[in-house]
User: What shape does this take?
Amino acid sequence: MSGFDLQAVLDRIQPVAEQTLDAIQSRIDRQAKPVGSLGRLEEFARRYVAITGREEIRGKRIYTFAGDHGVVEEGVSAFPQEVTPQMVFNFVDGGASINALARHAGAEVQVVDMGVVTDFEDLDGLIRRKIAKGTANFTKGPAMSREQALQALAVGVEMAARAKADGIDLVGTGDMGIGNTTPSAAIAACLCGLPTEQVTHRGTGIDDDALARKIAAIRKGLEINQPDAADPLDVLAKVGGFEIGGIAGLVLGCAAEGIPVVIDGFISTAGALLATELHPHVRDYIFAAHQSVEIGHQHMLQRIGRQPILDLGLRLGEGTGGALAMTLIEGSLRVLREVLTFDEAGVSEGEDR
Assistant: This one.
């Protein structure tokens, strides 16, 4: 990965043409229904077609990136670190929530080991891109080196290229990593310029004492490392995670490849925020799947400039919200393809349309 050229990826990212969006909306407005009556479904169809030039999805894939975090030493999680590899096995075996919802959405799941402490020997179906066995504890220094941060981005970009080569037209992001709401909140605090307590919540369900430890750990990490908000790569290296970097790279890569990407919840949005800070046009390619229970999520989405599709009280991660949102994007395209215009249907248009 030492030959990875981030600038070359950024240089390939183009804005989605406004005139294309307008042309698709004009067609939607001629369909046999009151103008705007399908609400945000019209937005999904308009944006998907403008990005891809296609009106049908050939293939859907969710990449679930996994990594461990040194900051769990600070008592910030309700679950032990052994759960990360246990869930990776479950993902690969097809027995997790993301697998069930991906099957419902007609999407495949690919699991990428970015930095789990455990070695996965003889685990067929796992994409092995381990950068290190977990990040360092960022309360004592940087979570990773700048080179490792670049390596994480490179893996995500590689996954986007693989999706393109395989004819995938819609990509989703997912994550697994015990403790990873802590680096995600640190990224949110840094890039959104907000106090730590405004972006830090209970993750998998920690109690008040653990929440206080989590806030203290994030404050200490930001104070010690002084991540530069004007340099997203520095933020990732100082207080991020390997799987968060993989997600950031995937979002960048999808924008470069012209693939719409559905970002899941809090951790995925931390990765997407890094990507949009690296290049502003990346947001054109992002669909925000849902509003997470995590309090920092809304602030990140506001900065990215994307409105969540769903609000179901989800806080699982894995890519679960993304799988659900994919079904609505696909439904919007069916409406675009199958609803006749007023002329085609022989229906009279209302004067106040």
User: Anything to note?
Assistant: The chain has one domain: 59-331.
